Amino acid sequence: MLQANLPQHVWGESVLTAAYLINRFPAPILDQKTPFEILHNKKPSYSHLRTFGCLCFASTLKRNRTKFTTRATTCIFIGYPFGQKAYKLYDLENRKVIISRDVIFYENCFPYIQQKLKWPESPLPMSFHDTAD
């Protein structure tokens, strides 16, 4: 969190993401099984895991754009939504949390470290929009 220079209002998302990851890694007390494996009787997939706080671009839906609007929204990856096969993202331009499945990640790029950008003083009001299909 500190190394990515993310603001404190995103730290709650980091706790949820940490819990998500803990439930998908083997534990010695569970005989090297994961909590996910115990609950669902199958091994978890790791192919969808991404670097927290990295730069990403969420595709905008065709119904939400015109010929002159951008095809992607610049975001920061902040976690995994509950009960959905998607990603939770923080939209940098509109300052809101969105959920999207169609995302391109740049896992070695952390925009607030590289550009020394400042977060707004108050994160409120911060709205929540679901753009997953």
Short description:
This protein has helices at 11-22, 35-40, 111-114, and strands at 55-59, 72-79, 87-91, 96-100, 103-106, 128-130. By secondary structure, the chain is of the alpha+beta class. It has one domain.
Structural descriptors:
3 helices, globular, alpha+beta, 133 residues, six-stranded mixed sheet
How would you characterize the overall build of this protein?
This protein is an alpha+beta fold and 133 residues long. It has one domain (8-130). The chain contains three helices and six strands; from the N terminus they run H-H-E-E-E-E-E-H-E. A six-stranded mixed beta sheet has the order 5-1-2-3-4-6. Strand 2 (72-79) and strand 3 (87-91) form a beta hairpin. The protein is globular. Mean pLDDT is 81; it is low at 122-128.
